[in-house]
């Protein structure tokens, strides 16, 4: 597995976003994290899927996440604007954007608002509507799991992991816990304000905007956090989009089904070169 290396400054002097990047000098793929998670967790999720493509992999910590201070208002639009400013300053060509969950929600928002910055989108378990009560979630019962599969997880996370995971084994739980605990500490108070405030949804969340670059949307059949049906309906925005729903996968799909994620990512990368 190719490991990202830390950039020389590791801090952007203007936007102050912490980032790591690989040593490759090819086109850039900028990877955005799940909510509350760090760039180290994003690298663990996506770097195996991108390995061997010759891309310059860039992993960002969002404001108030990982090692990036909370230096913008606690809204998704301010967060998106900060990422766009970073892209404007650091890249001289449109980039591929990849993200999971909230990171994918932001990536899709960037493609709507600043399509000049984006060559293609890899959206893994993407948020489509940010308000929980508006999401279409699977009604099926969770898959069977071995007895004691959550024993090593903190009790406070049992309910979340029970809803989030489709591949329900102690090994997957250990992998997800390692990701959750990796990287910088973030700013929990900022994250709470962002997630519970009126600015959590992007103002153009419901905009009927088409992005005509190559897109891959990958969802988990047992994802009871954001589901998979809203993501299929959103495919009308992506005329060059491929949609996949994976059985025995939930919201932490990159850690649950890494081999399938790599196969689908390689297909997406092939289409970005057409």
From TrEMBL:
InterPro entries to which the protein is assigned, alphabetical: AB_hydrolase_1, AB_hydrolase_fold, AB_hydrolase_sf, Epox_hydrolase-like
Annotated keywords: Hydrolase
A molecular function (GO) term: hydrolase activity
UniProt keyword annotation of RNA-binding present: no
Keyword presence, Hydrolase: yes
Pfam families in the record: Abhydrolase_6
SUPFAM superfamilies: alpha/beta-Hydrolases
Transmembrane segments: none
Domain AB hydrolase-1, chain residue ranges per copy: 44-261
Gene3D superfamilies: alpha/beta hydrolase
PANTHER family (UniProt xref): HYDROLASE, PUTATIVE (AFU_ORTHOLOGUE AFUA_4G13070)-RELATED (PTHR43798:SF6), MONOACYLGLYCEROL LIPASE (PTHR43798)
Protein name: Alpha/beta fold hydrolase
The organism of origin for this protein: Micromonospora parva
Taxonomic lineage from the root: Bacteria, Bacillati, Actinomycetota, Actinomycetes, Micromonosporales
């Amino acid at each position: 597995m190719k490991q990202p290396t830390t950039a020389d400054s590791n801090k952007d002097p203007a936007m102050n976003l912490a980032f790591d990047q690989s040593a490759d000098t090819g086109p850039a793929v900028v990877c955005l994290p799940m909510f509350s998670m760090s760039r180290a967790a994003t690298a663990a999720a996506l770097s195996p899927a991108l390995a061997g493509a010759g891309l310059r992999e860039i992993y960002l910590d969002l404001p108030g996440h990982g090692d990036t201070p909370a230096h913008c208002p606690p809204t998704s639009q301010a967060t998106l604007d900060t990422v766009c400013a970073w892209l404007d300053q650091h890249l001289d060509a449109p980039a591929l954007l990849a993200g999971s969950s909230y990171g994918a929600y932001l990536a899709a928002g960037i493609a709507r608002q600043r399509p000049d910055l984006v060559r293609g989108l890899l959206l893994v378990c993407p948020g489509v509507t940010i308000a929980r009560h508006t999401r279409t979630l699977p009604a099926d019962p969770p898959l069977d799991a071995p007895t004691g599969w959550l024993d090593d997880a903190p009790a406070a996370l049992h309910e979340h992991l029970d809803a989030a995971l489709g591949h329900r084994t102690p090994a997957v739980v250990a992998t997800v816990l390692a990701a959750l605990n990796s990287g910088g500490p973030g700013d929990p108070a900022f994250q709470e304000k962002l997630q519970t405030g009126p600015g959590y949804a992007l103002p153009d969340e419901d905009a009927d905007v088409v992005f005509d670059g190559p897109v891959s949307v990958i969802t988990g059949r047992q994802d009871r956090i954001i589901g998979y049906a809203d993501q299929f309906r959103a495919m009308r925005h992506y005329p060059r989009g491929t949609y996949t729903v994976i059985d025995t996968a939930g919201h932490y799909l990159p850690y649950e089904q890494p081999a399938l994620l790599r196969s689908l990512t390689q297909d997406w990368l092939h289409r970005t070169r057409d």
